Amino acid sequence: MKDAACVAFLQWALPRLHLRWPGFRKVRRQVCKRVARRLDDLGLPDVSAYPSYLETHPDEWPVLDELCWISISRFYRDRGVHTFLERAVLPELAQLAGASGERALRCWSAGCASGEEPYTLAILWRLALAPRFPDVTVQVLATDVDQRALDRAERGWYPASSLKELPASWLDQAFVRVAGGFSLRDELRKAVTFVRQDLRKEAPEGPFHLILCRNLAFTYFDLEVQRAVLDRILSRLAPGGALVIGSLESLPEVGEALEPWSARCGVFRKSR
């Protein structure tokens, strides 16, 4: 499929799915390959025939929506963000929880893909912070729309390429080396619960001290859906809690509900 033809199709189709073309510009080839395979399955001659098919087969739209799910993740992705979480955010949130008589720091990883982000959080807490806060545990709820990605996450097995950004000193403490890759240790897997949810339509019950919603809603969703997602996030975020978005993302206007904690790292704090 020619790139120009696929781009023209995506620019037509994405707004109808409440998705933003600018967010897909860099990942369009991944989506275009999926679309090309779907055209073959349907017996359509080329992408120019897909819009008519979609208009006459409304049950095809959810299929196309699934073709547009982007799952790009690695352990410890964006070192600066995780350093800030370790040095500033998590210690303060742990103190906040302790001062409120709570024994658990509740975290939500939205759009968790294959589990790299929530597991990174569990590793970071156990290896870097748990000794300082022996009376506080971390509970991570991780959600994603893609059940296949969640199945991979629950297995807890990863290739070396997924771990290349993880601090080397943590690798053997967090993983067991197995044939072809690495298996996350059981005690770390138990810290994370995975649930299938579509962030555009639902969210888990809160409140949460920390919510990570990075490189998903505020990259791929249109402005209307972004606002709805942010409203749900804010309703689940505890006063004084932190929201982390992608470092290159921006939020819809939120008034005084959030204040920057680290604009460079995409970290915001909910007003108390």
Quaternary class: single chain
Helix content: 40-55%
Distance between the termini: 52 Å
Radius of gyration: 20 Å
Count, helices: 12
Please write the string of helix (H) and strand (E) elements. HHHHHHEHEHEHEEHEEHHEEE
Question: Approximately how much beta-strand content do the residues carry?
Answer: 15-25%
| Total beta-strand segments | 10
Low-confidence runs (pLDDT<50, min 5 residues)?
Answer: none
Average pLDDT score: 94
Major β-sheet strand ordering: 6-2-1-7-8-10-9
Approximate shape: globular
**By helix and strand content, what is the structural category?**
alpha/beta
- Report the biggest beta sheet as strand number plus sense, adding barrel if it closes: 7 strands, mixed
Walk me through what this model shows.
The protein has 272 residues and is an alpha/beta fold. The strands form 2 sheets. A 7-stranded mixed sheet has the order 6-2-1-7-8-10-9. A 3-stranded antiparallel sheet has the order 3-5-4. The protein has helices at 3-13, 21-24, 28-42, 50-56, 61-67, 79-99, 116-129, 147-155, 168-174, 186-189, 217-220, 223-236; strands at 104-110, 137-144, 157-158, 175-178, 181-184, 192-196, 208-212, 237-244, 258-262, 267-270. 43% of the residues lie in helices and 19% in strands.
